[in-house]
């Protein structure tokens, strides 16, 4: 699928085809997460924030570090789990 970059107010944007929205299981108001790859590709997925309510007694800096770890090394961790 291809899309053109369009002007949206003072910004530039891209609309998403209905097939992509269904594939991502997103609707208006949902948040998306973009990951920039070294080779110029961009991956997109539905953003799922951590539910930290169950982790009230755990230090926020530790939780932020865990989230950073998973965001940056998700593929590596998945490959290790598959071994």
TrEMBL record:
<dbReference type="InterPro" id="IPR007159">
    <property type="entry name" value="SpoVT-AbrB_dom"/>
</dbReference>
<feature type="domain" description="SpoVT-AbrB">
    <location>
        <begin position="6"/>
        <end position="52"/>
    </location>
</feature>
<dbReference type="Pfam" id="PF04014">
    <property type="entry name" value="MazE_antitoxin"/>
</dbReference>
<protein>
    <recommendedName>
        <fullName>SpoVT-AbrB domain-containing protein</fullName>
    </recommendedName>
</protein>
<dbReference type="InterPro" id="IPR037914">
    <property type="entry name" value="SpoVT-AbrB_sf"/>
</dbReference>
């Amino acid at each position: 699928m291809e899309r053109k970059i369009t002007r949206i107010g003072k910004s530039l944007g891209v609309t998403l085809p209905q097939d992509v929205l269904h594939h991502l299981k997103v609707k208006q108001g949902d948040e998306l997460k973009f990951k920039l790859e070294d080779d110029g590709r961009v991956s997109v997925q539905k953003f799922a924030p951590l539910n930290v309510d169950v982790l009230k007694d755990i230090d926020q800096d530790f939780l932020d570090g865990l989230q950073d770890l998973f965001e940056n090394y998700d593929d590596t961790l998945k490959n290790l789990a598959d071994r």
